[in-house]
Amino acid sequence: MDQVESRSNLRERRSNVDSTETEEESGVLKGLISDTISSKAERLGQEVKKGYELVKFQALPEHLRDNEFIYKHYRANWPLREALGSIFSIHNETLNIWTHLLGFFLFMGLTIYTAMKMPSVGEIPGMMQRMSSFQWNSVTSDELTNLVAPEPQKPISRWPFFVFLSGAMFCLLSSSICHLLLCHSQRVANLLLKLDYIGIAYLIAASFYPPVYYTFMCNPTLRNTYLIGITCLGLLTVAVSLLPMFQTHQFRPFRAILFASMGISGIVPCIHKLLLHWGEPAAQTTFYLELTMGGLYGLGAVIYATRVPERWKPGHFDIAGHSHQLFHILVVAGALTHYRAGLLYLKWRDAQGCEGM
Ligand SMILES: [Zn+2]
User: Fold this and answer.
1) Rounded to the nearest 5 degrees, what angle is found at the Cα of 106, between the Cα atoms of 138 and 85?
2) pTM score
3) Helix ranges restricted to H, 216-322
4) How far is the CA of 110 from the centre of ligand 1 (A)?
5) How far is the CA of 325 from the centre of ligand 1 (A)?
6) What is the C-alpha separation between 341 and 138, in angstroms, rounded?
7) If you measure from the C-alpha of residue 291 to the centroid of ligand 1, how many angstroms do you get, rounded to a whole number?
8) 276 C-alpha to center of ligand 1: Å?
9) If you measure from the C-alpha of residue 224 to the centroid of ligand 1, how many angstroms do you get, rounded to a whole number?
10) pLDDT class of 139 with cuts at 50, 70, 90
């Protein structure tokens, strides 16, 4: 009996000891878990806090170190939601985003307006009487509604003009998205930069369509040769811009030269136009507009490549006035000049058509 009792006491003591040990262990474990959770939360809190903060150039990851003359106000590794929301906050990309986003809305408006106001191909013969006074050197919004010829030989196509407008819209929107979300991660940045370069190549190639199509409209072989040529050049530029090394900082001057030479090749059809249509007022006016456009794009490319003015006063143009913003504004101005030239081409060809075709 005593033995039985002592055994049961022993078991009881052991169980008490066990339960005390388990309580202690669980207490320690709970402490450890709560410590881990709180330190994790603390770390997470710091990360989230860091994510919302604008940082200096030195704190940037390698892939975002593009312009050492811009010192502060960078976003780096921001979550997608925060990056999207930063469209309405001030940082060193705010004006890069908005200069092209407003440009996109402007061209979207122009496309809708042009499509609504421009007479369709089938309407042209019936609207001949409305072409009473005709000024080659100016196109007002009222005149746009009267883009018809006194005696059109053949209705002309509108699609080349819309190819240009689509190129302008694509370029401006993709650039704007690129600047907005570039700060998210390296993977997203690489993807968006490719999209941005494709947009530039698309705009340049699309800009050739109205002048080439309407200048050589009456010579389909010449017209198609030029159009196929610039389309192939555009595709080649896109292929090169998809190479990973093309996005590196070392390739900045090469990028500028490649896009600039694509644009400069437009001199060939431009001179050809003057030789074929010398004395034609529309050919001369569009030539001056193309010269202006070339000047605006060229100046933009030089500013982009040289990083003026921030190079002269580093840190002074972080928020406003740095080279990329100026480049964006010049691109929109160049595209607007080209839009105006496009309207003149339409007027010219609606008025003349192709005799004998
Ligand atoms: Zn840009």
Assistant:
1) 165
2) 0.76
3) 220-241, 252-264, 267-276, 281-306
4) 22
5) 7
6) 10
7) 23
8) 37
9) 32
10) low
Q: Give the CA radius of gyration of the chain.
A: 32
Q: Among 250, 337, 319, which Cα is nearest to 65's?
A: 250
Tell me, what amino acid is at 289? L
The structure tokens listed for 205 are: 């190639």
- Which residue bears the tokens 């389909």? 220
- In which residue are the tokens 């979300």 written? 181
Could you tell me the sign of the dihedral formed by the alpha carbons of 99, 100, 102, 103, in that order? positive
Tokens of 189: 């940045």
pLDDT at 140: 53
**How far, in Å, from the CA of 324 to the mean position of ligand 1?**
6
Crossing angle (nearest 10°) for helices 281-306 and 186-215: 160
Q: Are 167 and 331 in contact (CB under 8 A)?
A: no
State how far the Cα of 211 lies from the Cα of 353, in Å rounded to an integer: 15
What digits encode the pLDDT tens for the residues 240-259? 888 888 777 778 778 778 88
The answer to whether 324 touches 310, Cβ cutoff 8 Å, is no
Question: What is the Å distance from ligand 1's center to 290 Cα?
Answer: 22
272 annotated binding-site participant:
no
- Return the H-helix or E-strand segment holding 194: helix 186-215
Q: Is 184 a known ligand-binding residue? A: no
Q: How far is the CA of 176 from the centre of ligand 1 (A)?
A: 7
pLDDT exceeds cutoff 80 at 345: yes
Listed residue (253, 245, 248, 91) closest to 183, CA to CA = 91
- Tell me the C-alpha to C-alpha distance, in Å, between residue 140 and each of 144, 147, 247, 310, 344: 6, 11, 42, 38, 11
What's the whole-number mean pLDDT along residues 43-50? 44
Q: How many residues does the chain have?
A: 357
Q: How far is the CA of 329 from the centre of ligand 1 (A)?
A: 10
| Ligand 1 center to 96 CA (angstroms) | 6
